[in-house]
Amino acid sequence: MQLPTLPNLFLADLPPEAALTPALVRDACISVKRNRAQWLLRRRTQEMVDLVAYNADRWLQPDFSFRRLALQVGSTEMGFSPPTMARGLDAFFRQLTHDHLQGWLVQDLGEARRLDEFAAPPSELRHGRLALARGPELLAQVAAGNLPSSTLLLMVAGLLLRSGQFIKCSQHASVIPRLFAHSLAELEPKLGSCLELATWPGGHVDLESALFGEADCLVAHGGNDTVEDIQRRVPSTCRLLSYGHRLSFAFIGAEMLGTYLARKVAERAAHDVAAWNQQGCLSPHVLYVEDSGTLAPDGFAALLAEALAKQETLEPRGPLSPSESASIDQRRGLHQLRAAHHQALHRDAITVPRGPFFEAPSAETQVWASDGSTAWTVVYEADPSFRSSCLNRFIYVKPCRNLGDALRRAEVVRGQVSTVGLAASEGRAQELALDLARWGVSRVCPLGRMQEPPLAWRHDGRPALGELVRWTDWEQ
Amino acid sequence: MTFTITQSLTEFGVQLQARLARFSDSGEITDLDETAFDQMARSLFGLQYQANSAYRAWSDSRGVTPGSLRHWRQIPLVPTAAFKEVDLTCFDSSASTRCFHSSGTTTQRPSRHWHHSESLGLYRESLAAWFRYHLFAEEEPSDESSRWESDGRIAIISLTPPAEAVPHSSLAYMIATVMERFGASDSLSIGTLDSLGNWVLDTDRLLFALRRSLCSNRPILLVGTAFNFVHFLDLAEERNLRYRLAVGSRLMETGGYKGRSRVLDPEILHSELSRRLGIPRTHVITEYGMCELSSQAYSHRVGEASGAGNQFPPWTRIRVLSPETGAEVQDGEIGVLGVLDLANTWSVLGVQTGDLAIRNGTRFRLVGRVPQTEPRGCSLLTA
Lengths: 476, 383
Hints:
Number of domains of chain A: 2
Low-confidence stretches of chain B: 373-383
Number of strands of chain A: 16
Oligomer: heterodimer
CATH architecture of the domain at 118-132 and 143-308 in chain B: 3-Layer(aba) Sandwich
Number of helices of chain A: 16
Mean pLDDT of chain B: 89
Structural class of chain A: alpha/beta
């Protein structure tokens, strides 16, 4: 879409009738590389950190024009209500402080100066070893289709590494990355000339070949099919880093289910379900609740429903497409039917259903749902098998005996789990985190912060900045 | 004739079946106006509420009982997915003679719609009446129909397997019924099953049937699923086949791919079929049906232009509901298609399909399936 108040700086700003060609993409890549060599390559890390932090600070100001535009078009283009969008953007930009940016460089590179000069932490210096890290010349990105945060994070990484960047956005999620790029260009037009953004339907082979042919590093987000398809088409001159789909769940310990705490925990869970309308890989699909607490898991589900209803008044989910709404509606219908059937069997004390054709659904089901809309849904199922949600604030609550039990039930998604939100006492947390790590989870965080990973988090268990660089070792 | 309040489902079924038979003969229905439909639907709901515990539980949970019901629009619709979960039948299992399953991948539990002799009688009458109305729309025997068999019957060539081979297919049962009622003696089903139970096309037999029709210059009625016809188009492309079937030939395509062939846009599918077979576009009809219903919708009558949208018969009503609010959508808007089908006398009359549709008066245009209609996990889980 066109943003009327913005100048045409990037390919993505062009009107839809301006068709992209492979030559146009190639030329754009070449000029980004040229500008990068001239304006970006020789800059110091500290300058880049200052710039990123300063810009982030602008984004946190309520009256910042790009932020205002983001909240406005975010709801019309992406379906996030302004409060949901504001929360998502704040969670991201609050991370971009000097301190965090420095910390990220040190964590992933061992030494923050290593992008400027040969340097090393003491452990390496002792052996007379120094090293210099270099970012890609042209960092290409095939961005995720749903949320802007991973796209923005990679743009920040590219800035720290002084890479030229070409971001291929999905058609429905280009607005926020574009506004971010414009905000940088407004600060420093020369910096803007080292960035390019474009949108085209995924899998456009000619355009992508032109891009992949010019880039020396490509980060691809998307479904497994998308990623595999890209893998086949990337030339050997370009390094591919791919991030496939991940999903997340939460675990709530019995000790957190006391009368006072349980309500707090439910609020934190509601916070995670509502963040980015549950669309990211870090949003929970299922909450596993230990069944030995003061409050039973279905009681917790009822508290969660209250919390989601409250969340909806503060931070409405916003409109969905008919097929997204229908997806929720159908799923709700099915669970409501199970609930009604179960209740009727229970009430009529019929142990064997009169129809012999089916085994009766044996597991208890309860549904709490927003009235007159699909805004939020809580489904409690006594059947503890893992289920993936249809998202947009649709959450399963399931009982488990303990974490081991929950993990056995989640075996079907093992290896694909990004984050586990944990609500447990301090005394237990370490042991639980260790069990989760050994099982293969790549991030454990407190419930309520699932969609707010720290800047330096290891995305899918990999160092985001560290993966992008190439090293020169110098043995003195 | 007015509708008399019935005491039993059998009585209801008998009354309805008589009306359907009259419709089948005359092509007109005069005694199913809004008032009569409302009366019948509410009466049927009351009977099903008594006889069908799963439907009763569902209706109770929606706050609808026979006592509270004021209008057929309040009758609760059961999602088709419910047919996978619970028994939605009004008769005792010992009476059941047949069960129709939804098609789909073998890993999922299919929908199951149970039938006994009375319910099958209604199904046959309902499907035949509306089929005849659309596929044999000519009122007077014309030149083209004189080329049919002397008894006025047309050879029906079905690309699906015969009903005996696929006893759980409501489509195969429907085709067997129309062959029996309207088909010439050389009608046949030429589909077969592969070792995995997938429906495949016996191409030799199909080409033979097409050639025979050409040689005798007798029109035929081709029937099949969308994927059957895509397989045929692929074969025609590969062998560079193009036919000009006898005047009066016609084709009925019933939707559905189930991942068994590439998916073609319906417009392209129909114009390609028209081109390859020499059947005018006005004689290519789309049917929409499912095992959970006893009536079907058609795109248009033979010889008429398509485009207004699909239509169910007068003994049904459609509702196109906003999935967000549950309210009826306006004309031209998208919603989830629901059908109230009186011919579903012995199961449940209100069914909410898994299809999104645009409402056009009493007609509808399909827009697509509701994604992930049941919680079977995202693609990750099936990988």
